[in-house]
Amino acid sequence: MTYTLIGTPVSLYTGKVRGYLRWKNVPFSERLSTREVFKADILPRVGWSVIPVVIHQDGSGPGITLQDTTEIIEYVEANEPGPSVYPDTPRQRLAAMILELFGDEWLVIPAMHYRWAYNRDFAQQEFGATSHPHLPPEEQFAAAEKAVGFFSGSIVGLGVNPDSVPAIEAAYEDFLAVFEAHLAGHTHLFGSRPSIADYGLLGPLYAHLLRDPRSGELMRRLAPRVARWAETCHAPQHSLTGDFLPDDRIPEGVAKLLQRFAAQQLPVLLETAQALGSWAKDQPPGTEVPRILGFHKAVIGHAETRVETDRAVIPFPLWMLQRIIDYRNGLADGDRRAVDEMLRSIGAGALVDFELPVRLERRHFKIALAG
Predict the structure, then answer these.
(1) What does the alpha-carbon distance between residue 85 and residue 191 come to, in Å, rounded to a whole number?
(2) Which end of the chain is flanked by fewer CB atoms within 10 Å, N or C?
(3) Per-residue confidence at 1, pLDDT binned at 50, 70, 90?
(4) Nearest-angstrom CA–CA distance, 103 and 203
(5) pTM attached to this predicted model
(6) H/E run at residue 184
């Protein structure tokens, strides 16, 4: 096995990578991220406690350590043969990258809300089984209490509170309805082949919202096609198969999902970019960007359910947005006009010619100011 995936079934981002590696049909083994594995492997390699981690044994001694899911997938795409999860055509590729961002960094809101509001005991038992696999179940549950307190408390930073919960749940059910309708005519977002967008959505939709029992019951009842899609993407039957739609076509359902990105996540990203610019003025190149840059008022929800709530200013999604902007800026004139037309049509015209106030880079497995 040339790749080792370190993670846990209960982890959102581990689910994203696991599903991708299975479809890509690369040889990999999986190690549970126990306390001992964190001490022996993750902390020495990465420097902080985070999963998933992928190690590629490439013949160079300890091998190559990969951590962020986007970087893991890009690395495997560059180093392994076979069809790609990145569409070749400009509109589909840009749309897929946007929906990966939407899944990774916005659907995490309902994913975390439903877990800790409706599935807490299940998740706590899963956390305990991961960190202390050799203890009996009742001791596993007790041992996970501190970690569960940390993760469940973090939802405040995502804007989850009693005032915003109705809006979060209504927006999630609206998302399910749109995706469910799309899957009536397509097996995946852009045709019959999974894209990077499918895996961006897979993390929250499978590892949290389907796998956790109470939210899983809700998904199977409201959106059975979405539930089947998540199961298939996570454990595919036919690796390396399928095709993207011809002629760079964006299906109507995908356009509707992109509209949700533009209406819900994009305004928060633009405000976050302003906050990053203000913070970065007095920082030298190479400075690590904090995980939170204070709090701000953010609008959460869809259409008439939207509410304003306190939310942390989280700069990490801007690194993913920068990749999208870089792709758009690198296109030839005709292709750029095509993607700009698409951006305007979904309500994301603000991204046309948009530039972040500073450039970001991944340094020592964290986000830093480029330099």
Answers:
(1) 12
(2) N
(3) low
(4) 7
(5) 0.97
(6) none
